[in-house]
Write a structure and sequence with these properties.
With 262 residues, the protein is α/β, with parallel strands linked by helices. The protein has a single domain, classed as Aminopeptidase, CATH 3.40.630.40. Helix content is 32%, strand content 16%. The chain is built from 6 helices and 9 strands; from the N terminus they run ββααβαββαβββαβα. It is globular and about 55 Å long. It starts with 6 loop residues before the first strand and ends in a 6-residue tail after the last helix. 36% of the residues are buried. This is N-formylglutamate amidohydrolase. It holds the Pfam family FGase. InterPro entries: N-FG_amidohydro (IPR007709).
């Protein structure tokens, strides 16, 4: 049976991956009659334009279905937002949402993870290591479009590193030092760890399974590259985020090509 949940994988001759698992916006036509949210309400909590940021010269996994259909960054029990407390207080599904569709979505969750694991194993077999940049974005103006961003609590870039094997701490320090010395949109970059987010279920699972060979780094960009209330993008800022990650790949390449690292 084909999956209800849609995604795209683009392979490259590279040990690196970018993932945009919350970029998707689509709801399968079989599920639409049971959805309570409109497109604007969904977009507010999705991560639009992260697939554009993820367009780097490496392997890519892009989720095309909305997290409001299936969220692979949640456990199997929480991957379908059946209760408001799972979805920022939003009622996502009608009460008559069929159990057979819920079962299909949960099977999607299992199968997608199996496919991802297979791809990571292939990457490790070819290169001996892997790195996944798990790209997300977050809202910093929840009270309204004119809210002032709290610079103390809302870093420009948040790295979720709590699930990383400590063997990668030196590399993470190199990466943070590199990014801190760069600029984004003409200003020094405020990059911090585990302030807003610590890494979700996807990063936790893959780091537990394959943490000896590489890591999943959860990256949360503050939604400075768009109007988080209207969804309107600033493509110049989107490209600046993309270029920053492109430069960051050099840090990984240099690390793994040091003596004894290959």
């Amino acid at each position: 049976m084909p999956l209800l949940t849609k995604y795209e994988i683009k392979l490259a001759d590279s040990p690196f991956w970018t993932f945009a698992i919350h970029d998707g916006h689509d709801i399968d036509e079989k599920l639409l009659p049971y959805q309570l949210l409109n497109e604007e309400e969904r977009l507010r909590e999705e991560d639009p334009f992260t697939a554009l940021i993820a367009e780097l010269p490496c392997n890519r996994f892009i989720m095309e279905s909305s997290r409001f259909q299936l969220d692979i960054n949640r456990t199997l029990d929480d991957a379908i937002y059946l209760k408001p407390e799972q979805a920022w207080g939003l009622n996502v599904w009608k009460e008559d949402f069929p159990l057979e569709l819920i079962s299909e979505l949960r099977n999607d969750h299992r199968e997608i993870f199996e496919i991802i694991e297979s791809k990571i194993q292939d990457t490790i077999a070819q290169f001996g290591y892997f790195i996944i940049l798990d790209i997300h974005s977050y809202n910093a103006k929840r009270e309204g479009p004119d809210q002032e961003i709290n610079m103390d609590t809302d870093p420009e870039i948040n790295f979720g590193t709590i699930h990383l094997n400590q063997k990668w701490r030196p590399l993470m320090d190199e990466l943070i030092n590199f990014i801190s010395a760069e600029e984004l949109n003409g200003q020094a970059i405020d990059v911090r760890e585990n302030v807003k987010f610590k890494g979700g279920y996807f990063a936790q699972t893959m780091n537990q399974l394959y943490g000896d060979y590489g890591f999943v780094l959860a990256i949360e960009f503050r939604k400075d590259f768009m109007d988080e209330w209207t969804g309107d993008p600033d493509y110049h800022k989107i490209m600046a985020c993309k270029q920053l990650l492109l430069k960051s790949l050099t840090v990984f390449n240099q690390y793994f090509h040091q003596d004894g690292k290959e």
